Request: fold
Amino acid sequence: DALPRSAAKALDADKVCTSCHDSSYPEPVLDIYQTPHGVTGDPKTPLCQSCHGDSKKHIQDASVPPDVVFGDRATVKGIKGRQMIFKPSAPSVQNKECLSCHEGGLRTHWVGSQHQVNGLACATCHSVHLPKDPILTRANQREICFDCHKEQQADSHKFSTHPLDAGKIVCSDCHNPHGSTGPKLLKKNTVNEVCWQCHADKRGPFLWEHQPVTEDCTNCHTPHGSNISPLLKDRPPFLCEDCHNGPHQSSDAIGPGLTGSAPNAPGRACLNCHVMIHGSNSPAGAFLHR
Amino acid sequence: AMPQAALADGDPGAAALINPDNYVEIGGIFTSQDSSKFGEYNGLDKKGGHVLGNFSVSGGDSYAEKPGIDRWSIYGNNLGTDSRQVGAAVSAQDKWSFSIDYDELRHNITDSYRTPYQSSLGGNTFTLPSNFGTIDPNGTASLTANQLAAYHQMDVYSKRQNTSISAGYNFNREWNLKFDYKHIEQTGSKLISSASDSISDGLGENVAMLLTPTEYQTDNFNLAVNWGSDKGFFSAGYYGSLFHDDYNHLTWDNPFLNVNTNAGSSPESMSTPPSNQFHQLNFSGGYFFTPATRLVGGLSYARNTQNESYAGTYTPGLATPPISSLNAAVIMKHADLKLSNQTTQKLNLSAGFTYNERDNNTASAIYPFQTIGGDSPTPVNIPLSWKHTQAELAGSYRLDDRQHLHAAYNYDKFERWCNTSPALYAAGGSQPVNGGTYPTPTSCAQVPKQVDNILSLDYRLMATDTVNFNAGYAYSKRNSDVNPYFYNPMQSFDEGFENMGFLAFFQASRKENRVRMGVDWQATEKFDLSLSGKYTQDDYDATLGVQQGKSSSINLDATYAYSEKATVSAYATVQRRTRDLTNGQGQYPLQPLTALWTNNLTDNELTLGLSAKQKGLMGERLDLAEGITYSLGKTDYSTAAGANYTCVDSTTCGVFPTIKNEMISFRISGGYKIDKASKVMVGYQYQHLTSNDPTQYDYYQYGYSATVLPAYLQAPSYNQNLVYVAYRYDMK
Reply:
């Protein structure tokens, strides 16, 4: 409903729904008036029927579903994971209602994005009737994402992690789940541009660059969690030997109990000396020592 | 006249739902043990008491059926710890909005670090006591009494204080302006190793663990003007990021000085991250030809620069740089375009491309220096550049109301070159500098081009109203062009030699197969179960280097709602990853089979979780939540060597000790309602971590080696008991 109207008119119009879906209704309905969707003084704020359709049959017979039923079709769950009374509408039907106002911006690349082609509806993640949509709350967001992303949930319990559990970083600090031009739904154009938001010290440009660093931080790091600190895919010296064979004794077999085995494995291994591994700005740093 | 309480008429419970949820919590948290690892990010690194303080208060004339559009809120979390956050927001919906947020994060790195250096956290100068003397790396691993007496413990941490401001203004229904600003004030230090060389065998680098200061300030800005209508949308914006490092170098006394004639100098110096700037212009938009056919795209242009002085970043006398600062400039470009069509409900089609470029325009020059091994190379800095082109054709087809098919073809090309100064490499070409020439723009990249072709197919099936199934397969083949003219200017140096035939894994030709599958079963209204898994295998086509990588995971998840107010959930995730590496012994262009050796990485991870919630106990007064999490990570490395090696210790014979981290956490919390507005909350958590990595930590212990200044770093195992008690007052 885009026409100018008063808050009273909006509330009155909503009464066709709220007279039944009152505070005694088990699903949170009236809580929506605490959210931006319930600011009835704003003429752009939708009425119940703006999103759910006129639902004339439902009004006449409560056993008939409204025109548009929001929820996760894959798990047939609604708000707070409750079993739904009605089967949710097709994601495309649900999403059309949301996108009628929320086109562009973060949703620019929704069509064709991983979540769209996998059949997700906006309501799979968003609970717009709750006073605070859990996915927009930093303390709760990861739990919503972990509903599907079980590997990332497991990663978050590993020895080396970002401060996800402390709520200091959330999935949407790096990802745009609505679609993006970057890899893995990242919110920036490249992996590195995402990492530089907080790690600008790694941005350079350095006098002596390290090729994998300039191309993709995830050549060496795994951002969701690792058994090897700090968030490494492999530990030195083998992390380095995944790309180098020849410098010093790196070409010698490295392992305890072998003759001729190179001595450079303990501690930080190669990084005992090649400390400026992200790049060096010292004229004496060509080997990333300085 | 306004009708009074339209919703609340005859519905006394409505007021509680339409007024904002406001609360204040005050209490205490008590921990039983000092542990930098338990308190790595949560501010609870020290045992004892911490104040618990949280609040959230909102208001405005748009709540509770009032006719306005104004809202405000203030909030605070974890106020008694170094993990605190406070903020406020105010808005007139559809007109303007403003918010401010302050957030602290102290990253506790270690509490076992011991050092003889007289330095402060966040400082860049590391001096030894005047009576410290020197350490003889050719002698024993013992330290003198004076040296031992100089040791002291330091907590190592790096703290971030983030201040964010966001604002928005809507000019009208079509135009709006958005602004975001974030200031990150970072203080403290991180561990960094340092090396000097007083031994002429090329192996005996002397290592001292130092602290590199993280005295940084980062300012990130985002300003965008947006337009939207029924026919499309457009956005133009500027993103700026200014990074400032208070230091450009650190210096340290070299305790291994003057042991023999090959000793280096003291104090030694190294660089720290240079202050730098990133400015980016962004444009994006979309045009709807029809409701079903749309074109979206974007352009970005960015300039990343730094001109930090070299002064202090190298030891005087060892090198004379040709210029005093780099004046580096990298241009980053981006373009994307995507056409999509949803003409029918059944068929969605899309075609798109993405282009990213990093063009390093930094000038190159010769930088003579002396390595810590005593060599004197005269290398030239190589400005690395690349461009990445991706294209996608994709289609989704709804076979029927229950089945979907998605197919895609992706083309992915990555190209590399270097903007080495022509005058420089032309001159080098005629001069036998270090036994060769300097790399040209085309000879600097070992793999100047790699092309990946990817086919993927995904299928979704709603088998019944309660069973959903999905599966996917992707095949990827990457062909890399290995440069026959590739030139490594450091090939003549021990530190820079690379065996021919060796390719870094991220640029080697490889085939990849990916399979995934998942099923979700809503067995009853109360019980649901899901099972999913995936498997990836990479086979590399490289004589030397990574040969194969595999990763797999299986996830099982179940939830049982055994009553309207109680649920129990459980999950299990098993992950396994392997990597096979083949290397050649010695510095030979072609490796004899006897000289080859392999290394295998196996990473096994198990994560289990069990949680339960009960609401409305004791006459609707008590809510409880319990949870147990267990995680076990084991990383194993084993080296198998060719005939050139023999086992001198049959118990190990190339097998490293397992890197093992095992964590169990149990927590229980409850909230008891005293009355309608008051609640007492009590919680207990037990968390135990066993962390084990002798290959890493033994190195830093006293007596391990005379070439290492002990730092006494320890694996951060802990046994933590945490109790909290808080009083919450809810306001409506």
Chain A touches chain B through 130 residues (CB under 8 Å). Chain A is about 25% helix and 0% strand. Residues 7-18 of chain A form the longest helix (12 residues). The mean pLDDT of chain A is 89.
